[in-house]
């Protein structure tokens, strides 16, 4: 569904002495198979949105190639746009019409008949729990409802590939959980392929079959959440021995399983691959050596541990402010190629990604 090779995006910002080049995307390869839900994870400013904008034809890459839904993003942007749904990070700019009318207009711009657009729109309103809001203006909707309306816009033409840029940013926990269910349904009920960006670890964990981690414009990992955690971080084992004289033995035994062991008082810590398999043997060994434990803790690694192991920084600490209106100059976007169905205020690739 998505095949990208060597994508590079360089932005030139500032003027005169302030002039500098920002390498937002720096040699990205991505492959997404049909039916996969892929989470694109990285801190602020890592290059997620820029990659997404290249894949949705909103930005022409400085270098590299990509095909999306079988079409080349550089030479067949119109076909790419017809094949995908896109919900941008900022959401749609709605025109002030009723939500239902916006959705129907949007469907018709994709070539649907009014009748089909109304039927599909109503079905999506039901499915995304927007029933009763057809004749409500989007500006009078809650954040969660607007986000769900964005998703209706992205799905009205039944795309088989959906791009979601930080779909739950700014929503309260309940609205997020609700939206997660709908995103999960996209695949199970519609068989759609989903590519979503997020900087929420729990979101990537909950939704994605596979997680692609980007940092400073480069892909640093790509695997299932479980495999990433198992391969990169390992489960954390913390032994609390009952007396100081047992510390050395506990450190040796845990050290035979874990590459790095740290000791703090009577606490001995190390990370082991698949703790469930090795901890019973470790406990037997310690028992046989006469080491008594006051407590043992085993914690599954988090995606933040994975990121820390991969980059030496915590995902949260790595959050860097994105270039904003602070003298960085105008965005270096290329003009968009002609689109057959320009649409006012809708979540199509034509309008949905203004940042
Ligand atoms: N139009 C632009 N002009 C100049 N620099 C840009 C532009 N768009 C993005 N950048 C810079 O490129 C880098 C990557 O930005 P991008 O928006 O792709 O990151 P991101 O991972 O999506 O971040 P976030 O999670 O904050 O959305 C950042 O340093 C950003 O400041």
Automatic annotation (TrEMBL):
One of its GO terms (biological process) is response to antibiotic. Residues 320-331, 344-355 have a biased composition (Low complexity). Transmembrane segments: none annotated. GO terms for molecular function: ATP binding; ATP hydrolysis activity. Keywords: Antibiotic resistance, ATP-binding, Nucleotide-binding, Transport. One of its GO terms (cellular component) is plasma membrane. It is a peripheral membrane protein. InterPro entries: AAA+_ATPase, ABC_transporter-like_ATP-bd, ABC_transporter-like_CS, ABC_transporter_ATP-binding, P-loop_NTPase. It comes from the Bacteria. SMART domains: AAA. The keyword Nucleotide-binding applies. It is found in: Cell membrane. Its main location: membrane. Belongs to the ABC transporter superfamily. This is ATP-binding cassette domain-containing protein. It comes from Nocardioides marmotae. The lineage of its organism: Bacteria, Bacillati, Actinomycetota, Actinomycetes, Propionibacteriales.
């Amino acid at each position: 569904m998505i095949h990208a090779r060597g994508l590079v995006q360089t932005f030139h910002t500032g003027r005169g002495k302030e002039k500098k080049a920002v390498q937002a995307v720096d040699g990205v390869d991505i492959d997404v198979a049909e039916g996969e839900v892929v989470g694109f994870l990285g801190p602020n400013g890592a290059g997620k949105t820029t990659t997404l904008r290249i894949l949705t034809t909103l930005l022409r890459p400085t270098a590299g190639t990509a095909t999306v839904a079988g079409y080349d993003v550089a030479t067949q942007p119109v076909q790419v746009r017809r094949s995908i749904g896109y919900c941008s990070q900022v959401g749609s700019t709605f025109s002030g019409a009723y939500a239902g009318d916006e959705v129907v207009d949007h469907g018709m711009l994709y070539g649907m008949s009014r009748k089909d657009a109304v039927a599909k729109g109503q079905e999506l309103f039901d499915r995304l729990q927007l029933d009763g809001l057809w004749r409500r203006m989007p500006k009078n909707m809650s954040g969660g409802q607007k986000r769900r309306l964005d998703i209706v816009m992205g799905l009205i033409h039944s795309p088989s590939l959906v791009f979601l840029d930080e779909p739950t940013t700014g929503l309260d926990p309940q609205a997020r959980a609700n939206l997660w269910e709908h995103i999960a349904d996209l695949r199970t009920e519609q068989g759609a392929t989903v590519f979503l960006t997020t900087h929420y670890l729990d979101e990537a964990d909950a939704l994605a079959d596979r997680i692609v981690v980007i940092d400073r414009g480069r892909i640093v990992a790509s695997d299932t959440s479980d495999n990433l955690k198992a391969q990169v971080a390992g489960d954390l084992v913390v032994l609390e021995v009952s007396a100081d004289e047992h510390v050395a033995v506990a450190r040796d035994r845990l050290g035979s399983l874990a590459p790095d062991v740290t000791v703090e008082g009577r606490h001995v810590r190390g990370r082991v691959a698949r703790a469930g398999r090795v901890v019973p043997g470790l406990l037997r060994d310690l028992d046989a050596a006469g080491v008594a434990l006051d407590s043992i803790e085993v914690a599954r690694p988090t995606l933040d541990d994975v990121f820390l192991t991969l980059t030496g920084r915590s995902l949260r600490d790595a959050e860097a402010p994105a270039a904003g209106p602070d003298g960085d100059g105008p965005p270096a976007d290329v003009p968009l190629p002609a689109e057959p169905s320009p649409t006012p205020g809708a979540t199509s690739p034509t309008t949905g990604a203004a940042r």
